[in-house]
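ok here's cubn, seq below lol
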Amino acid sequence: ENYPPNQECTWLIRAPDSIIEFNFLSLDMEGYPPCYSDNLIIRDGANSLSPVLASVCGRYPPGSIHSTGDSMFLHFSSDSDVNGQGFNASFSKGCGGLVHVDRGVLTSPHYPQNYLPGLNCSWHVMVTPGFRVSVSFQNPFQIQGYGTDCSSGDYLQLRNGPDGSSPILGGRLCGSSPPSVLQTTDNHLHIRFVTDSSIEASGFKLIFEAHNEGRISCSVFDQ
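and the structure came out like this:
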């Protein structure tokens, strides 16, 4: 359904001891930049006076948006004219953390710009019990790893379970050719992204969804 006219909504996202990564899953709003009609303003801080990170409208979502601190303030407004379906988005800690939703996006920090050296990021994705986690990768995918099974340099590793001791899912990933789809056997997925001190690249963007025998869960949980 379309959102109502003349709406004013605000959200405050907090992630103690971390930055925040915000990703759009879909976008359908009136207007186009600079978004004088309906808009979603994303601010780098805890209130409406914080610096603007992005002003969003239209149908073409931006890439990942990152805060510089532990808070992100969102303000959505609509006028009395044309309305759309709005937006759907996910957020997580900027480099790791628990992600408890049934559909979302995770990226390397600063994607699609180059990630930083010396990273060791771990995410635990948890979807509805009884469902599996299905993962697909987007382009560009570029991780500067080398050697057999990405034994040197940077790598991305997915595991079939909740933590770093769970069975490896698909081996270490690096280079520019990710697998098409990976799927866990239960509702937990562990992701680890490690970079060394030398050459960086654009990194990765993955989409995860809860699946169960051909069905996709529509449930959403708070993080």
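fwiw The chain has two domains: 8-93, 97-216. kinda neat tbh
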